[in-house]
């Protein structure tokens, strides 16, 4: 029986020599995200790459929320291929299927709830042309909410297009890339294998693994949109702190890719960053759901792995919010 979470990087088979390969494979893994999928597909189709230059395929992990095949046919109008897993195999195995089915030389894993902006593929292609030794390239991106409204954007990795300096140390400290923003040479996946180990933070480990062996290029232009919503895999994992447990495991896996002399420092920096990030998530859960039980659980789990005065103060303020809300309700009932 094939495990849903591989214990080692799954093999990616090379494309047969007799295949007439396109440059691009845009592989769209989906599971129960049909409300966003039309926008995702249309964001790719608008860029008008012909079929001989770009493979576009939706890989469905046995969704139950809609007839995804029919949706793909209506939106794609024959331009977008469709493949459905026989049963739900989980996100990591679905990504593995995506990469193995990719025929192109450059692979973009575009989740079915994210979007690319016009010019994304042209810019990525130019980076691979300008820097032929790179294994991957990514762009700056922004976060959007479930309605597509702008939320925030990460800071620039550099001010101009180019190869990132000292990138292994930077990406080894914390996650700095979302799937939607990065393109990887297929031969890199063939050499290093696919995603494994955890279902939250698996991409971070993958980007570190690539940085260990290959140069990575970057553009500061915002050309991708990562959607944050509670029904996503990451959104669900926040509620029971599984995201924190997964990220801790990813940190352990990442240690093996880092130079010995920097491992302890980067590990401690990672702990601090993700503990503070977890409390930020807990604040968002409180603001959006007022789920007192989940918020308090997130705080306790976070304090188990890391403590500093700033973090303790943040937890105290958040805990106070849950108490104030309780007394507000009590007062409202009395009045």
TrEMBL record:
Keywords: Transferase. GO terms for molecular function: hexosyltransferase activity. Gene3D superfamilies: Spore Coat Polysaccharide Biosynthesis Protein SpsA, Chain A. Pfam families: Glycos_transf_2. The keyword Transcription regulation does not apply. It comes from the Bacteria. Residues 25-168 form the Glycosyltransferase 2-like domain. The keyword Transport does not apply. This is Family 2 glycosyl transferase.
């Amino acid at each position: 029986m094939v495990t849903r979470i591989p214990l080692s990087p799954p093999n990616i088979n090379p494309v047969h020599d007799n295949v007439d390969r396109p440059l691009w494979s845009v592989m769209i893994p989906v599971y129960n995200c049909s409300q966003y999928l039309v926008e995702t597909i249309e964001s790719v189709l608008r860029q008008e790459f012909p079929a001989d230059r770009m493979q576009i395929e939706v890989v469905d992990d046995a969704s139950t929320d809609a007839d995804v095949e029919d949706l793909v046919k209506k939106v794609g109008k024959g331009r977008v291929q469709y493949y459905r897993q026989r049963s739900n195999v989980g996100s990591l195995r679905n990504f593995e299927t995506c990469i193995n089915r990719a025929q192109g030389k450059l692979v973009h894993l575009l989740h079915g709830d994210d979007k690319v902006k016009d010019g994304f593929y042209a810019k990525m292609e130019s980076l691979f042309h300008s820097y032929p030794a790179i294994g991957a390239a990514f762009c700056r991106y922004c976060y959007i909410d479930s309605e597509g409204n702008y939320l925030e954007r990460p800071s620039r990795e550099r001010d101009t297009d180019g190869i990132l300096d000292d990138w292994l140390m930077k990406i080894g400290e914390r996650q700095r890339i979302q799937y939607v923003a990065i393109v990887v040479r297929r031969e890199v996946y063939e050499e290093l294998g696919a995603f494994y180990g955890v279902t939250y933070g698996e991409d971070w480990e993958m980007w570190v693994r690539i940085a260990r062996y290959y140069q990575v290029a970057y553009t500061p232009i915002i050309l991708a949109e990562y959607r944050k919503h509670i029904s996503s895999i990451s959104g669900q994992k926040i509620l029971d702190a599984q995201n924190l447990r997964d990220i801790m495991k990813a940190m352990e896996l990442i240690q093996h890719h880092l130079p010995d002399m920097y491992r302890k420092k980067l590990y401690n920096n990672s702990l601090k960053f993700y503990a503070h990030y977890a409390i930020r998530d807990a604040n968002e859960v409180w603001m959006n759901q007022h789920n007192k039980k989940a918020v308090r659980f997130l705080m306790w789990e976070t304090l188990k792995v890391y403590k500093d005065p700033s973090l303790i103060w943040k937890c105290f303020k958040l805990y106070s919010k849950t108490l104030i809300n309780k007394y507000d309700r009590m007062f409202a009932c009395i009045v």
